[in-house]
């Protein structure tokens, strides 16, 4: 990967999608984004938004989440995958935020990783979007397209995260995730890539043109 090719990729992404941060999950408070991100694991953002619109009306505070029954929470999020574990994690996470962090979502990575249901991807979503801390989020789109672009050979999201930290300018760390999500949903679609209309095809060694 040459610096010029990477810069061309970033310039074309900026031209196509702009440089403003985007968030596809709907939220009004930091804990709502945290919970929505927990729910989004192996689920579409669109489905999560449908569920949280009612969920955040019913449970409009951390205290209400903390006191909810697991059975009722499971019913409330039943249409989302892995709802058994996610219901348990939402309640436990709310309780820990109240008991250990005075009801505030922490900004440091180590503290975020102590919360039930929170891994590096979720923690970096919060750090990048709530606290404006340069963070790289490696989801399935980022992993797949970063590999197609020849920027990594790894299958390990944590390794990919650190590899991208080495080559991407910090002002594009969080953008890399949202830009590649958009690209992956509209053009570089898994198993049916539209390479013929992709604005990155000249920079992509995997392009089928």
Automatic annotation (TrEMBL):
Entry's EC annotation: 4.2.99.18
The reaction(s) annotated as catalysed by this protein in its Swiss-Prot or TrEMBL entry are: 2'-deoxyribonucleotide-(2'-deoxyribose 5'-phosphate)-2'-deoxyribonucleotide-DNA = a 3'-end 2'-deoxyribonucleotide-(2,3-dehydro-2,3-deoxyribose 5'-phosphate)-DNA + a 5'-end 5'-phospho-2'-deoxyribonucleoside-DNA + H(+)
GO MF annotation: an example: DNA N-glycosylase activity
Domain of life from the UniProt record: Bacteria
Q: Which GO terms describe its biological process?
A: base-excision repair, AP site formation
As cofactor, the record names:
[4Fe-4S] cluster
Residues bound to [4Fe-4S] cluster = 188, 195, 198, 204
HhH-GPD domain mapped to chain residues: 39-186
| First-level EC class | lyase
Q: Which InterPro entries match?
A: DNA_glycosylase, Endonuclease3_FeS-loop_motif, HhH-GPD_domain, HhH_base_excis_C, HhH_motif, Nth
Q: How is the cofactor bound?
A: Binds 1 [4Fe-4S] cluster.
Q: Which UniProt keywords apply?
A: 4Fe-4S, DNA damage, DNA repair, DNA-binding, Endonuclease, Glycosidase, Hydrolase, Iron, Iron-sulfur, Lyase, Metal-binding, Nuclease
Q: Does the keyword DNA damage apply?
A: yes
The similarity annotation says: Belongs to the Nth/MutY family.
The record's function comment reads: DNA repair enzyme that has both DNA N-glycosylase activity and AP-lyase activity. The DNA N-glycosylase activity releases various damaged pyrimidines from DNA by cleaving the N-glycosidic bond, leaving an AP (apurinic/apyrimidinic) site. The AP-lyase activity cleaves the phosphodiester bond 3' to the AP site by a beta-elimination, leaving a 3'-terminal unsaturated sugar and a product with a terminal 5'-phosphate.
Name it: Endonuclease III
Organism, scientific name:
Lachnoanaerobaculum saburreum F0468
């Amino acid at each position: 990967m040459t610096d010029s090719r990477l810069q061309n990729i970033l310039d074309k992404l900026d031209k196509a999608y702009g440089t403003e941060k985007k968030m596809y999950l709907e939220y009004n408070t930091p804990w709502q984004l945290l919970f929505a991100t927990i729910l989004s694991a192996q689920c579409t953002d669109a489905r999560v938004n449908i569920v949280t619109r009612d969920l955040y009306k019913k449970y409009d505070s951390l205290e209400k989440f903390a006191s909810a029954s697991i059975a009722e929470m499971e019913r409330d999020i039943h249409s989302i995958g892995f709802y058994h574990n996610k219901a348990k994690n939402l309640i436990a996470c709310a309780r820990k935020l109240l008991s250990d962090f005075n009801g505030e979502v922490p900004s440091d990575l180590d503290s975020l990783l102590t919360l039930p249901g929170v891994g590096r991807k979720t923690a970096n979503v919060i750090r990048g979007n709530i606290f404006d801390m340069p963070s790289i989020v490696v989801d399935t789109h980022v992993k797949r397209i970063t590999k197609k672009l020849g920027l990594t050979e790894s299958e390990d999201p944590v390794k990919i995260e650190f590899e991208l930290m080495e080559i991407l300018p910090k002002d594009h760390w969080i953008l890399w995730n949202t830009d590649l999500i958009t690209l992956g949903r509209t053009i570089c679609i898994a198993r049916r890539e539209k390479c013929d209309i992709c604005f990155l095809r000249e920079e992509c060694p995997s392009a089928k043109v």
